[in-house]
Amino acid sequence: MANYLAFVFYFQAFGIFTVLCSVKPNIVYEWETVDLVWPNSSVKDEYIQSKKFIPENNAINGIKMYKDDIYLTIPKLKDGVPFSLVKVKNDTSKNPLLIPYPNWDIHLEGDCSNLRLIQSMEIDPYTGYMWIIDTSFVPRANINIADQCLSKIIIWDLENDVEIHRHTFPSSVTGPGMFYLNDIVLDFHSNKTARWAYISDTLGHRLIVYDRELDISYAFRHASMKPVPEYASITIGNVTNVYSPLGINGIAMSSDLKNVYYCPLAGVGLYRIPTAVLRSSKSSNSDFEREVVHVGNKMAQSDGIYYGQKHNLYYSTLGPRSVYQWSMTPISDNVRPGRQTEIGNDDRIEWIDSFAFDESGYLWFVSNNLNTHFSNETVKGSSNFFIWKLFVDDSSYLKFSDDTSSAPSYSPGVYVYIFVFLYLLVTC
Ligand SMILES: *[C@@H]1O[C@H](CO)[C@@H](O)[C@H](O)[C@H]1NC(C)=O
Ligand SMILES: *[C@@H]1O[C@H](CO)[C@@H](O)[C@H](O)[C@H]1NC(C)=O
Ligand SMILES: *[C@@H]1O[C@H](CO)[C@@H](O)[C@H](O)[C@H]1NC(C)=O
Ligand SMILES: *[C@@H]1O[C@H](CO)[C@@H](O)[C@H](O)[C@H]1NC(C)=O
Ligand SMILES: *[C@@H]1O[C@H](CO)[C@@H](O)[C@H](O)[C@H]1NC(C)=O
């Protein structure tokens, strides 16, 4: 009974909190243009003169955290982006230098086995392995894929700085036609070693699965992964752009590992598919069709999404400059969507790209003005790339308890919640 009351009180406290305050997220780092840690200034001069490094073309996109370090991606979608994966050490500067990760040489041009076009990665907190997806080349219509380096996934050990494994995607999985490996979530063995990766293919409108144990990849297609023409146009401030080709983009894994959520960029629908379907290469598109659920509609189009331990799905609204929390209340085997609540907003947010969690209850995210970046309308003299954090008192889907088969338990003492409640009331 006491536990039950604590539970109810807890939700009420947070309900009032979220109604009363949509919090201002804090800017941790910001850059007008990024700069790197170079071996020496003559190397930097050479990169700038030869246009191997064009600072304003380097847009930070992806973010994930491990221990005290932040890992960021800079997809090579414009010229002059020499390093697609970088790291920021815990830094007191507001605009720190980026460190090419894992090393300089693995980013050098002209070698198919190197890191090439990285949009996203995910980190398995148990092993410290980073799973990096590499589309490898800028997708364009009428490109001859046979002339291009193949796309791949690389598993990299952050603790020991060594490659663990790599898998090259056969063109039967990524083709035919255009593809773009956009975002990735991990799914686990009972022994806590990530086994499956689920990847959104934004241009191929597919959900690609990589099974590490069998070292195979396969893909699913469904109408829900396609862009919706009526939602292709997005206005942020006074700039409107059209994103007609962009399908499945945001992808998130429930913290009980039972469902994968996804949404097309051009669209507002949120869908979920049981991992039981994705885990088997024998599942067909019709199995997918039978099991997929339209969860509901978000408030607006979004890019990356993320799922926390407390069964909240986090997403941003690209037009309105906000972060939303969507409660997915666990009820036995089903997941019923709850309320969508605005939990943070700021006028300086322009295109939230991706999310990460630290271990202190903060949701971190990148905003990067991607809309003006690609339409070449970036305003000079102000910051373009921001790393934010917002306290949400939640943690990543990857930080689960030993029992991965059941919902997380809410059992802390009632006094903690009374304290939290009073604290929130005072700070609101
Ligand atoms: C700068 O670093 C590069 C690469 O490590 C090296 O080849 C070069 O000799 C260095 N130049 C100077 C002036 O130290
Ligand atoms: C960096 O260090 C400060 C002070 O130790 C800490 O408060 C902060 O959370 C750290 N940031 C990250 C990203 O680890
Ligand atoms: C977990 O299982 C996988 C697949 O059977 C195996 O490769 C891996 O070594 C196991 N990990 C541990 C820590 O036992
Ligand atoms: C759009 O808004 C920005 C910032 O307020 C301003 O600098 C820019 O001139 C505006 N552009 C147009 C086309 O109105
Ligand atoms: C932006 O500039 C680049 C390089 O100058 C050019 O290739 C691209 O077509 C431009 N994009 C738009 C939307 O104007």
Automatic annotation (TrEMBL):
Q: Which UniProt keywords apply?
A: Membrane, Secreted, Signal, Transmembrane, Transmembrane helix
Instruction: Provide a GO CC annotation, any one.
Output: extracellular region
- Tell me where the transmembrane regions lie: 409-426
Q: Which InterPro entries match?
A: 6-blade_b-propeller_TolB-like, MRJP/yellow-related
- Specify the protein name: Bee-milk protein
Protein's UniProt keywords contain Secreted: yes
Q: Sorted alphabetically, which SUPFAM superfamilies does this protein's record hold? A: Calcium-dependent phosphotriesterase
Q: Which Pfam families match?
A: MRJP
Q: Where in the cell is it found?
A: Secreted
Q: Which residues form the signal peptide?
A: 1-21
Similarity annotation:
Belongs to the major royal jelly protein family.
Primary localization: secreted
Superkingdom of the organism of origin: Eukaryota
Q: Which residues form a coiled coil?
A: none
Protein source organism? Mytilus coruscus (Sea mussel)
